Structure formats: structure tokens, C-alpha cells
Amino acid sequence: MANTNTLYQHGTLALLVPGLLDGTITMKELLEHGDTGIGTGEGLNGELIILDGVPYQVDSDGKVNVVKDDFTLPFANSHFGEYRDLTTVEGLSPKELETKIMSLTSANTFFSTKVHGTFTNMRTRAVKKSHKPYATLSKTAEEQSIFTRESVEGTLLSYYSPTIFDGAAVGGFHHHFLSDAHDFGGHVLGFGGVTGNVTLQQFDTLEQHLPVNNKDYMNYDFSDWDILGDIHKAEG
């Protein structure tokens, strides 16, 4: 029976900052830890969103692809979905949505939300795949494509991490989106408003998996980096 109380995370956002962008887990391995999730491919190859066990990649051309088992990722979250109804919302901005969710749950543990509904003025991004020698996260993220839709139906899949874990993950919310038509999505930069249903799944355990077989990661000195500053710049 699947463990629905554990959030699995491969890698950390911190390792992306200096450009440690090797794929260190396969999609097949990631899916062993969940049927729902988000991530990015080797070299920041697009934005991933996993729904109902299907891994979708939004690439830098805006195309939505279902990736194969051997697709590799430097960073990803996954878990086995068991969401419960939380609330319904009408015309809420991202900030209003986050405030509403936080009023109904705790800021002191990890959780995931899925919001299904209609979104106005949705803005997403995906980064073009880079190759070795990799640039830094902030430099690589400059090579991003931005996509917009005036109105789109779809799923906003989000993970919330307590502030004390900032650096391992994004402290606060991290949002990815996929349209119902599977023709639009990515890392969410913002939207005008959302009307739809909000569901939530809370975790009591974070399973943090590190890429110990990757020599670049194991030998890297992170001490000279403003890890949190760079993460917030790139993920904002």
C-alpha cells in the first residue's frame, strides 16, 4: 500500500544554484516514490508536472511532452496522491489563494495542493536545456521562454515547504501548471485570478534523497554562494 504521508525529494534547490545540473535520477526511479510531482530535467530541461502517474514536460518551445522512463532529473518532488477537499475559490489572485490556503492549514509542515479550475492571465515559463559546462542557475534561467493564456482550464499543482527548509526546497509555495488540454503549462510566474476547487494533502515526513554517486556534487564547496538569494531570484 502506498505511503501517502511522505514527500519524496531528490536533490536540493541549493545544488542547482552553482550549476550542478546533471540528471541524477531517472523518471522511472522517481515514479517509484509517487504518482504526483514536479521537477526539472537535466540542464534545466523544461518544467515537469506529474499527474496521475503521467510525467509531463513543458519544454522551452511550450510543447507538452510525456517523458520516457530514462529521462533524468537533477531535482524533483514526488508523492502518492491522496488529496482531500479544502475549499472552493472564485476569482482569487495568487496571493489571495495562498493566504486562503494558509488560513486553513499549518505553516509548519510540508503539504501539496491541487487547484483545478479556470485561470485568467496565466503566465508560465520553461527553461531551454543547457549542456556541460553548465552555467549558474540564475544565468541558465535567463534562457527561459514565457507563455501566456488569457483564460485556461487546468490544474495548479503546488508544494509548500516551511521557511526553515528554505534552500533544500523553496520556502513557501512552488507552483507548476498543466492545462486540461495538455497543450500549455510550466513553472507559474503568475496569474490574474482562479475560480475552482482546492484540495490539500499534508505530509508528516520528508524523505530527502541526495545524489551521492555524482562526484561534482559530492566535491562541491557551497560556502561562497548566496544560495537563498540565488534561489529566490531564479524561482520568483
Describe this structure in words.
- The termini are far apart.
- The radius of gyration is 17 Å and the shape is globular.
- The protein has a single domain (6-235), classed as 60s Ribosomal Protein L30, Chain: A (2-Layer Sandwich).
- It has six helices and 15 strands.
- With 236 residues, it is of the alpha+beta class.
- The chain has helices spanning 13-16, 27-31, 94-103, 137-141, 215-218, 227-235; strands at residues 6-10, 25-26, 36-40, 47-51, 54-58, 64-66, 72-73, 75-79, 84-92, 111-127, 144-161, 172-179, 185-190, 193-202, 205-209.
- The model has no long low-confidence stretch (mean pLDDT 95).
- The protein has a seven-stranded mixed sheet.
- This is Alpha-acetolactate decarboxylase.
- GO terms for molecular function: acetolactate decarboxylase activity.
The CATH homologous superfamily is named Hypothetical protein, similar to alpha- acetolactate decarboxylase, domain 2
How many domains? 1
Helix content: 10-25%
Q: Uncertain regions: pLDDT < 50 for 5+ in a row?
A: none
Q: Architecture, CATH level 2?
A: 2-Layer Sandwich
Inertia-based shape: globular
| Number of helices, counting only DSSP H or I runs of 4 residues or more | 6
Q: Report the sheet-strand fraction.
A: 35-45%
Distance between the termini: 37 Å
Q: Order the strands across the largest sheet as they lie in space.
A: 6-5-4-3-8-1-15
Structural class: alpha+beta
Q: What gyration radius follows from the Cα positions, in whole Å?
A: 17 Å
- Quote the CATH topology: 60s Ribosomal Protein L30, Chain: A
> What characterizes the major β-sheet?
7 strands, mixed
Order of helices and strands: EHEHEEEEEEEHEHEEEEEHH
Number of strands: 15
Mean pLDDT: 95
